[in-house]
């Protein structure tokens, strides 16, 4: 059911990236990961079907990355779920164009449900 759906995880915490990657791979998604915002900003092809984006990443604010993606015609339709340990950032993430928001630590079933709603 999820075969062929490509999800990019962008978070500067390798432990979070590894845990989410393992789960999504087990669920049948094609997963790519990055620990830096530069990878997302420099994407020019092979775009993911969905992006899991941390709000605070080394050197970059995920909200700025989200705004940039939503402004470009080739990436504006990619659903973005922003994740953060700060629940008060939900509003600013939504204002930046995020399609959804998850507070860390989050329940993996909640993540899977949000992904399914956006790209299922």
UniProtKB/TrEMBL annotation:
Query: Is Ribosomal protein set as a keyword in this record?
Result: no
Q: Which residues form the Response regulatory domain?
A: 6-119
Q: Does the keyword Phosphoprotein apply?
A: yes
Q: Which residues carry this modification: 4-aspartylphosphate?
A: 54
> Which GO BP terms apply?
phosphorelay signal transduction system
Pfam families documented for this protein:
Response_reg
The name of this protein is: Response regulator receiver domain-containing protein
Please give the organism.
Mucilaginibacter gracilis
């Amino acid at each position: 059911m999820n075969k062929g759906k490509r999800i990019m995880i962008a978070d500067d915490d390798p432990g979070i990236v590894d845990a989410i990657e393992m789960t999504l791979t087990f669920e049948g998604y094609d997963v790519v990961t990055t620990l830096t915002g530069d990878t997302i900003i420099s994407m020019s092809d092979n775009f993911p079907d969905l992006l899991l984006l941390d709000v605070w990443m080394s050197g970059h604010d995920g909200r700025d990355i989200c705004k940039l993606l939503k402004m470009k015609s080739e990436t504006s339709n990619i659903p973005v779920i922003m994740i953060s340990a700060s629940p008060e950032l939900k509003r600013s993430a939504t204002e930046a164009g995020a399609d959804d928001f998850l507070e860390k630590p989050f329940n993996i079933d909640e993540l899977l449900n949000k992904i399914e709603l956006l790209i299922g």
